């Protein structure tokens, strides 16, 4: 077997299961999981109807590039969403590639992109979605962790990277809106990274799968292609974005998304995928077209998340410190006392609520070995994906538990206390 498999780190949910093992929560309380970012809102019904209407097309092999109609629907959506119309738009033939969800595409792109004949560092936000790291390790690369700390708005600090380090970087991942922090990358940060990419010759891969879940309807998060177009960079040189219907349309099981950007990157990636054998089935492509062409259900989805964010923020703000939510469906609070594992385990034991320790999504980067500082430590990730009633109930349980935890934790008044 590939020896690089042995360097993969345990997945966060494996570690969480081990943490909760042998803990017996109160049977009188129903379990409320706030762990996995799996949307629980109803899937877009029209897309499912389309899927059913085209089920007979399961008898046909699909093409790796997808149908021209799907690529056009994607190009039209991205052009509208990111204001690309007067700025160059997207060529559906050369700059768009449908994929089976962003997770699969991100992993595959790293395998296709890295040049193993020279140093291959891949910069990833820290904390992060673990596929970035796993894909890098299995492609023979080395992760370079860019800490996203409170003093930098929970966004990766690219200015902290020395020039000599950039020389070995082949690929930089962004995640905006961020998982787990919910932080949004401003246009200025995209622009600065594009400048660095031109100077040091690396690719920028922007994971924007949460881009349609934002709290201010008047201020949608910007994207990497938008930043390119504002610079007059209509070929989107060195830049790719990854988008998905999983969160936007509550269709995680459809496994439908796309990659768009630099045609000189899309072409070899499509060739790789031809051998990879991961073309999207035709019924799924038809369903995807229906979803990309409709915005009403997406606005309704945002309204539902706003209701939950408003309720949970009101409940938790008096006892927990967290960044003001901007986008995604996560909350990123600090825990009183700073021990996210102990807090998570005790919360499950006492209130039957599951959350994810923030340290499970980050890596220690300051200091040596186990003495390094993990930027996810001392926080928990709350995925507000359940219905309003369950989410509010979980928030009240979390508040009651936090009040007890603060009273019993001597350092709680100084670590993780409300700002």
What does this structure look like?
With 419 residues, the chain is of the alpha/beta class. The chain folds into 2 domains: 151 residues, Aspartate Aminotransferase, domain 1 (Alpha-Beta Complex); 236 residues, Type I PLP-dependent aspartate aminotransferase-like (Major domain) (Aspartate Aminotransferase, domain 2, 3-Layer(aba) Sandwich). 38% of the residues lie in helices and 12% in strands. The chain has 14 helices and 12 strands. It has a 7-stranded mixed sheet, with helices on both faces. Helix 7 links the parallel strand 5 and strand 6. Helix 3 packs parallel to helix 11, helix 4 packs parallel to helix 5 and helix 12 packs parallel to helix 14. The longest helix has 21 residues. The radius of gyration is 21 Å and the shape is globular. The C terminus is likely disordered.
